[in-house]
Design brief:
Length: 439
């Protein structure tokens, strides 16, 4: 049997896929390596959302093979642009074929090569029916669906994930209860678009949240990204669900542009006014809302006026955090065929938004100084101190704290991307579990 290391990139959804593959490998008798260096095989679970990310994935696969490792490529890149993947890989699995990971390793051990990149229309698996690897920690990712209902002209991820497939509410609830029973204190609901959850099976995200918050226990729920055109359809009941103390007051609502013509060209199916309506209602009824959004700069056809409209929207709405991306054409997408903006112009617009977003974020975070707020402690931070998440999912660095505790903390100082605080008193302890497989 082989020693295998699973290396995940991209979204939390990919992390969940990685844990599924780890559990399947263990069940098949393989050993999980602690580092790539100690592994016989490295599974590179790729992301392909942007062109620079694609280059990074291709380079990483090549580096591993050059160092003597056998590599199995999985994730979105194998659907979006398989031509950039080194031909020396020992196997290739699409996102709908991760249940074949143990088979891929076994075939590679015999000198063969499994390539399974079925189109989402040809093969569908319910990933909540597959095993997961339980690890020590505070947060647990629960996928609630795969695919989406949008057809954005710039997005290649949909080529991999396909059309919306929502997982049955009873399976989601089963996983949440199991995670809580094992000591996890934060449930991260993950999807390509949580806003359209259930539209294909006669339910919706708000109803799912109501079912989860009805579960006994002191825990928190982080809702993943939702698109405005779906969120607005269930706005009232969604906001009602958010008012539960178990739901982080965190809204990831990507606007992508502040210009309606650019939104139309992007195929986003909502207007700037609808985005602002959602934000206004959430802020009115959900105190302390932490608004995160995404903006693409340099989209084909973005004029100076259109970009300025985006700047003005940011100034009006003042999101807590903005993920600014420079547009890059993705293979097979409609927008890739259109006339592209000069690279220097895209970079300059990105810098303008970056400076603006940091200034706004710092001003917002400064308003927290001196406040005492609830924090769920996650554990040691990468750059020192103890990382936690506030009631609205802002990152806070504490001087001390035990992973899994819910504590009160006073905010002492801030940066643009984090808060810094001191615990004032503790909460319930968290008991970690050792690695095991869900049966």
């Amino acid at each position: 049997m082989a020693r295998v290391y699973v290396e995940n990139y991209g979204c939390t959804r990919n992390r969940a896929d990685g844990e599924i593959m780890e559990a399947i490998l263990l069940r098949a008798g393989h050993e999980l390596a602690e580092t790539p260096e100690n592994a016989d095989y490295v599974v590179v679970n790729t992301c392909a959302v942007k062109d620079p990310t694609e280059h990074k994935m291709a380079r990483r696969i090549r580096e591993l093979i050059d160092s003597g490792k056998k590599v199995i490529a999985t994730g979105c890149l194998v659907h979006v642009n398989p031509g950039v993947i080194d031909r020396r890989v020992s196997g290739i699995l699409g996102v709908k074929s991760i249940d074949r990971i143990a088979e891929a390793v076994s075939i590679a051990e015999r000198g063969g090569k499994l390539v399974s990149v079925e189109d989402w229309r040809e093969r569908s698996i319910d990933k909540l029916e597959l095993p997961r690897l339980w690890k020590s920690g505070v947060a647990f990712v629960v996928p609630i669906s795969e695919g989406c209902l949008n057809a954005c002209t710039y997005c290649a991820t949909r080529f991999a994930r396909g059309v919306l497939k929502s997982y049955r509410p009873e399976l989601v609830i089963k996983w949440v209860k199991e995670a809580l029973a094992r000591g996890y204190r934060e449930i991260q609901l993950s999807s390509e678009d949580t806003g359209c959850y259930g539209f294909d099976i006669g339910t919706n995200l708000a109803k799912l949240l109501d079912e989860i918050t009805a579960i006994e226990g002191d825990f928190r729920i982080r809702v993943g990204m939702m698109n405005p055109n779906h969120a607005i359809k269930i706005l009232d009941e969604l906001i009602d669900a958010y008012r539960s103390e178990k739901v982080y007051k965190f809204l990831h609502l990507p606007v992508q542009s502040g210009d309606n013509e650019i939104l139309r060209r992007m195929g986003r199916n909502y207007t700037v006014e609808e985005f602002e309506e959602i934000v206004k209602e959430f802020r009115r009824r959900v105190p302390g809302l932490n608004l995160n959004t995404d903006i693409i700069v340099g989209f084909p056809g973005e004029s100076d006026e259109a970009f300025q409209n985006t700047v003005e929207l940011v100034k009006r709405v003042r999101p807590d955090k903005i993920n600014v991306s420079r547009y890059s054409p993705r293979p097979g997408t409609i927008a890739a065929k259109w006339k592209q903006l000069p690279g220097w112009l895209v970079k300059e617009r990105s810098r303008v938004l970056h400076r603006l977003r940091l200034a706004i974020a710092y001003e917002i975070n400064r308003s927290y100084v001196g406040r005492e707020i609830e924090v769920l402690v996650h554990g040691p931070a990468e750059k020192g101190g103890i990382e936690g998440r506030t009631f609205n999912y802002k990152e806070i660095i504490l001087d001390s704290g035990k992973a899994g505790e819910l504590v009160k903390a006073r905010v002492d100082r801030t940066g643009s991307t984090y808060l810094r605080g001191t615990p004032t008193f503790g909460g319930l302890p968290h008991s970690s579990e050792q690695k095991t497989i869900y049966k």
